[in-house]
Amino acid sequence: MASRSRARNALDAFADLVEAAVDVHGRELAVRVALLAPDTTGLLAHDTGDGMSEVFRKAD
Fold first, then answer.
1. For the residues of the chain, what is the DSSP string, one character each?
2. What does the alpha-carbon distance between residue 21 and residue 1 come to, in Å, rounded to a whole number?
3. pLDDT at residue 60 greater than cutoff 90
4. How many CB atoms lie within 10 A of CB 26?
5. Using CA atoms, how far apart are residues 16 and 21, in angstroms rounded to an integer?
6. Separation between Cα atoms, residue 18 and residue 53, nearest integer Å
7. Given this model, what pLDDT does residue 15 score?
8. What is the pLDDT of residues 12-52, one digit of tens each?
9. What are the extents of the domains in the chain?
C-alpha cells in the first residue's frame, strides 16, 4: 500500500507541474498549434483550452 501512496503522490505532483507549465506557456502553445492568432491578447478562453486538450490528448 505504501508504494501506491507514493505513486499517487508522485502523479499528483507531476500533474501540478504540467498544469503550471501550461499556465505559463499556454498562449505560446495555443499559437503554435494554430488555436490562437499570434496577436491575440487576454485570458485563454475555455474553448481554446478545450481545443488544446483535443490536440494534446493521446489517441485511444
1. -HHHHHHHHHHHHHHHHHHHHHHHHHHHHHHHTTSS-TT--SSPPHHHHHHHHHHHSPP-
2. 30
3. no
4. 18
5. 9
6. 13
7. 94
8. 999 999 989 988 999 999 999 999 999 999 889 999 999 99
9. 2-56
CA distances from 37 to 11, 22, 33, 55, 56 (A): 33, 17, 10, 16, 18
Q: How far apart are CA 60 and CA 47, in angstroms?
A: 22
**Cell digits of residue 29:** 502553445
Question: Taking a C-beta distance cutoff of 8 angstroms, is the pair 20, 26 a contact?
Answer: no
- The residue type of 51 is G
